[in-house]
Amino acid sequence: MRLLLPIMTILIALALLLPGVTQPVLTLEGKIDKSKLAKTGIAMIADEGDRHTRSMLMMASSMLGLDELEGEISAYKKTRSIWGTVNELANNKNYLVAALVALFSIVVPALKLLMQLVYCLIPMNKFKHILGQVIQGLSKWSMVDVLVIALIVAYLAGNADGQMGELINMHAEFGTGFWYFTGYCLFAIAASSLIKVTPKNS
């Protein structure tokens, strides 16, 4: 009965990990104010002409009401999951980074949870002791999966910043994958605290 709680915690963490990896983690959207876009376009055209041309363009813009346009248009939108980021990094030939993100956000977490589950289910023997040592070793990397999320957010934000100018208003929104992954992290931490690795001499 005392093993029921850690086993349930591990199973919930595993169930949260899959959507946490495959569902969108972050959506970045950039919108341009229509009036600012019109003003910038006119200013760029006017720079190519003389003073008279510039005055005519400004007057035409005012007459047409281009400086009073309302609303925004979408200029940039990107939604990525952890797995989608791995694929994008690989497609951009960042193979090492893609492999590290996949390793620490997918392989290591799933492997650790499965080993913890096996540790809870098998009786005490030499294999269980070895498995306990491996689990303790993996626990040293317990915060790397959280770092992966931070890196993905920074990667997407940096990628967007490189394509955007002052005209664009950026808006970031966490996706369902972020909350699933956060839930996985919390349950994985809880599982680690509930499982007591028994020393060999006990």
Automatic annotation (TrEMBL):
Membrane spanning residue stretches: 95-121, 141-158, 178-197
Domain of life the protein comes from: Bacteria
InterPro entries the UniProt entry points to: PqiA-like
UniProt KW keywords: Membrane, Transmembrane, Transmembrane helix
Protein name: Paraquat-inducible protein A
